[in-house]
Amino acid sequence: MDVISGIDAALAAHGLAIRGLLNFAPDETPPAxxxxxxxxxxxxxxHAGANYWTHFSHWRATQPDDLPNPLDTWARTLLxxxxxxxxxxxxxxxxxxxxxxxxxxxxxEGLRPSPLGLLIHPVYGLWHAFRGAxxxxxxxSSQHAGKLSHACDACVGKPCLNACPVDAFSAAExxxxxxxxHVRGPNGSPCRSSGCLARNACPVGVAYRYPASVQxxxxxxxxxx
Length: 225
Description:
Layout: H1 2-12, E1 17-23, E2 41-48, H2 52-60, H3 70-86, E3 88-91, H4 101-109, E4 112-113, E5 119-120, E6 128-136, H5 176-184, H6 189-194, H7 197-201, H8 212-223
Helix pairs in contact: 1-3
């Protein structure tokens, strides 16, 4: 656990943290660790709220304007600096083949999806994210979170499902193409500048809600603008 504490301290200096620890079951076939053999465990790295934004912004100011995927690049750079010290291999959500980050998060933190598809936390609401992972060749000592209380179960009216101007969200599906067309279109300015209206309608974790400028950055990336 001293190693885990050291990793958490190194991440905290950049607004990130270990969000979950998971040992893989014997019958799983996880991605390879640093040794090239299947990893024994994974540390999920991310944040709650937008404390990372100041650190990312300072780094971004030193990079070329046309740098692709700057947030992923920043997170990877940080994790690549930490990984050799703990014998880990870095894995990012966008690496192919895609790793089941959401499933790992549900197991490690006991989270469940919201009606929007995003994992909801009883404290952070929808304002948290997993930016990468460290795959280890050894098991880690961890306490399984179990299932946390699901905030959506007690939510009356489900305001997130009624806030989208083009009704992109329903209990059955997320109409991705409809959402994307609206965000890119002439009436999508509120979504582009202040973030997803449905996500902002969620009453859970408002203290951790990303500032409008941070949400605008993510919306621009989502819509490839």
